[in-house]
Sequence to fold (308 residues):
Amino acid sequence: MLLDQGESSVLVESPTYSGALAALYPMRLNIAKVPSDDDGLQPDALQHTLETWDESKAPRPRVLYTVPNGCNPTGASLSLNRRHRVYELCCEHDIIIMEDDPYFYLQYTSPRLPSLFSLDTEGRVLRFDSFSKIVSSGLRMGFVSGPPALLEQLQLHGQAVSLHASGISQALLLKVLEAWGADGFHQHVNEVVAFYARQKEAFFASAERHLSGLASWNPHVSAGMFAWLKTHVPDTKALIQEKAVDAKVLLVPGEAFIAPDKCDLRAQRFDALPRSPSPYVRAAYSTATPQDMDTALQRLASLLRAEQ
Fold:
């Protein structure tokens, strides 16, 4: 809807959600990576990318994709100052922001950081939220907020692609929300947040116990359910997809979340992408018990020692 297949450029924070990359690759776009750190997408890097863009090599980007809260895979949340700066830069360079925000309600701090959509005064933010993380993942229900002109086009696009979301899921969710009411919904969300906060504390306590000296991580994750572990292994793909699986430990190698450098797919096959080897590993502490997480990280530690 916002990007032309085989022609457009798009900005993505890096690393970023692997599902978003999987959707972008077949469109054969020029994917420009913007680095992130423990405080989310780096505005200085975004500014540099936009100000030094060479239009003789690729069309200027019109869209920025970002996960501002509890990013999958890093767990990072965009700081308040950075939110304002990123929005200012996008206004200055006429960029539409696709705010993928399924972890907004899973912020551990109060008050929650504001969405980019709530800061929008120019009608350039499309914010996507989900009930999968706070009600039921099986419902596969979400919602989008944004300027009417974009929402109208998005609705028409959705009708052409899938007609509409499952009617059964919509009816079930409506009845749940009606039964809860606003107060009940917020009470439920608070209980979910408390659960994930306990999961986070258990995971990082186990990481400290088993992985100290073998990996590093940001222990100050303030939203979501992910940990981004940096190991001493330059390329974790075989370690995670083969050896860890054999040890019955399910993690994701970092390269799944990182687009290749100079990822211009307008003139090449997306299924022949060069690899992006990474020393990182993504872990999720969503449903595993504290005991299982401790066992998994103990086994991961053994695998990492064997790689030394």
